[in-house]
Design a protein that fits this description.
Radius of gyration: 22 Å
Number of helices: 10
Number of strands: 8
Shape: globular
Strand content: 15-25%
């Protein structure tokens, strides 16, 4: 008796983000992505494929980086402005635009050539005293996430930065991932394996950040009425803190993604 021929397997369904075109095996992962990505019409978009990018630097990587999208790169090289990254219908329009385009030339981030030691801002004993005495009432925090897990959809903090109210840099470090990185998300993060080869351990990062945030205040007093502890500002700040495995009093958080009215504490 002849055996039945093997039926071709149908390709597994992939769930695709309509803004940045990332694909996920599970629908719930796509939903989580949409909750924390905050795509909007204000984000830079590729003039060819209409992909949303996190920043103009990410858009530049998409068009001209080490691994650009071939079709987008080809069209951009022919009809794109190297300053504002806009793409035009013809060369005449492009030439007329170049006479008026007033954006300054982009400055490379320089992350690929920086060593771990150069990238760290070490807080010496004298700097620690200055940080405690500085009058800044708020600091802003931002994290860059790489992907972990089988399909690279788990957010893993790989880079963290804190600035004060004057946009002065307080702390910056590459963070040693606790799990294996399966997707560096280079087009968005600009990070590669070499950046994390000698990264700072997460526990040390937590200590540095806590030192800046609590500003010499006790944890008990900070939880009660703030004391000298600083307000922490960020976009989806609770998600960043989760990825850093840190806690901070709710009444000292200011999330720009979900504005909360200022509470009556001695910090406001």
């Amino acid at each position: 008796m002849e055996s039945e021929p093997d039926l071709p397997k149908s390709p597994s369904t992939r769930h695709k983000c309509s803004a940045c075109y990332k694909q996920y095996k599970k629908k719930e992962h796509l939903v989580e992505h949409m909750k924390c990505s905050f795509h909007s019409v204000h984000q830079p978009r590729c003039g060819v494929c209409k992909k949303h990018c996190k920043s103009f630097e990410s858009l530049r990587e998409h068009l001209t980086g080490p691994l650009p999208k071939s079709m987008c790169s080809t069209i951009f090289s022919e009809r794109g402005c190297n300053l504002c990254l806009e793409i035009f219908d013809n060369l005449l329009s492009l030439n007329n635009h170049k006479k008026l385009c007033g954006l300054s030339a982009p400055v490379p981030l320089g992350t690929t050539k920086k060593s771990f030691a150069e990238s760290q801002i070490e807080i010496s004993n004298s700097n620690e005293v200055n940080l405690v005495e500085r009058g800044s009432k708020a600091v802003a925090l931002d994290c860059e996430m790489v992907g972990g897990g089988d399909d690279g959809t788990l957010d893993v903090c790989a880079r963290v930065c804190l600035i004060d109210e004057d946009e002065s840099l307080l702390f910056h470090a590459y963070v040693q991932p606790l799990i294996s990185v399966t997707n560096y998300r280079y087009e968005v993060t600009g990070l590669a394996e070499e950046h994390l080869s000698n990264a700072m351990p997460l526990k040390e990062v937590q200590e540095k950040i806590s030192q800046i945030l609590y500003n010499g205040e006790s944890i008990g007093r900070a939880r009660l009425d703030g004391g000298k502890a600083r307000l922490l500002v960020g976009h989806s700040i609770e998600h960043d803190l989760d990825c850093l495995r840190m806690n901070y009093p709710d009444h000292l958080l200011r999330d720009t993604a979900n504005y909360r009215p200022l509470m009556k504490t001695n910090l406001v």
